[in-house]
Amino acid sequence: MASLDARSISAWFGEHKVLDRVSLTMPAGKVTALIGPSGCGKSTFLRILNRMHELVPSASLAGKVLLDGRDLYSADRRITDARRQVGMVFQKPNPFPAMSIYDNVVAGLKLTGTRVSRRERDDLVEETLTKAGLWKEVRDRLRQPGGALSGGQQQRLCIARSLAVRPRVLLMDEPCSALDPTSTRRIEETIAELVHEVTIVIVTHNMQQAARVSDLCAFFLASQGTPGVIVEHGPTAAMFDHPQDPRTSDYVHGRFG
Ligand SMILES: Nc1ncnc2c1ncn2[C@@H]1O[C@H](COP(=O)(O)OP(=O)(O)OP(=O)(O)O)[C@@H](O)[C@H]1O
């Protein structure tokens, strides 16, 4: 488990500036929710936290991201190491569809060059599927393809795959937006259990979900063509019950966005 500290992050796509000096501390062992209307830069900010932003050819950034005080972007840190320590779960479940459930879970080990014995692999598959709340449903069909699972199960498989490389932070970009209410509940329960061992940062458009799952909230806003900024952040209860800024109040109460 580690804290993430974003300091004065600005981001561009080409000439287009989409974030302006955004700072946010995401404490270890807590769930931090990033909320705000579409296009205000939440996903871009999230992708900067595990060095995925730089995959876009036109993308650039300024500022610092510290993982437990160490610069994620320092020249002596490999990108693969940054992405292993800060994992990501996406909006749309993206298991390798033809690959077995078992192989999906351990797929990240190959990418990160981690060598483990067969026995250790078996244990890891059981452990991470259990943590992702999927073990009981799939224990008897680990050799079946990941693509044969339901959407909600696929998303939990993706969570297990992320956990298998033992990240210290897990980023989740609207992980439930493609799921039905029951599957959404399962993922939310999983988040509540996982936070005891991995720091979580989640982007969500669902205010009830932010209120249910997060300890802390940051409200992003990009007003009329200006880059995104954080208007207000703090403990989730305070953000919902006594927001300091009227724009936060309007947003969390569904008056815009
Ligand atoms: N690959 C890209 N190339 C160019 N511009 C991009 C790219 N990705 C995002 N943008 C722009 O950056 C800005 C912020 O987008 P971003 O996806 O981070 O916002 P968001 O708050 O996550 O939105 P949403 O809630 O709709 O997902 C938008 O103006 C968007 O058009």
Each distinct ligand: adenosine-5'-triphosphate
Q: Taking all residues together, what is the mean pLDDT?
A: 94
Helix content: 25-40%
Largest sheet: 6 strands, mixed
Total strands: 10
- Poorly predicted runs of 5 or more residues: none
Provide the CATH architecture of the domain at 4-94 and 168-252: 3-Layer(aba) Sandwich
Number of helices: 10
- What are the secondary-structure elements, in order, as H or E? EEEHEEHEHHHHEHEHEEHH
Describe the strand arrangement of the main beta sheet, using strand numbers: 6-7-8-3-9-10
Through-space gap between termini: 33 Å
Shape designation: globular
Strand content: 15-25%
Top CATH class of the domain at 4-94 and 168-252: Alpha Beta
Structural class: alpha/beta
CATH topology of the domain at 4-94 and 168-252, which one?
Rossmann fold
Question: Which value, in Å, is the CA radius of gyration?
Answer: 18 Å
Write the CATH homologous superfamily of the domain at 4-94 and 168-252.
P-loop containing nucleotide triphosphate hydrolases
Sum this structure up briefly:
This protein is of the alpha/beta class and 257 residues long. It has a domain of 176 residues: Rossmann fold (3-Layer(aba) Sandwich), CATH 3.40.50.
Task: Describe the protein's topology.
Elements: E1 4-13, E2 16-26, E3 31-35, H1 42-48, E4 59-67, E5 70-71, H2 79-85, E6 86-89, H3 101-111, H4 118-131, H5 135-138, H6 151-163, E7 169-173, H7 181-194, E8 199-203, H8 207-213, E9 216-221, E10 229-235, H9 236-241, H10 246-252
Parallel strand pairs: 3-8, 3-9, 6-7, 7-8
Antiparallel strand pairs: 1-2, 1-4, 4-5, 9-10
Helix pairs in contact: 3-6, 4-6, 6-7
The protein binds adenosine-5'-triphosphate.
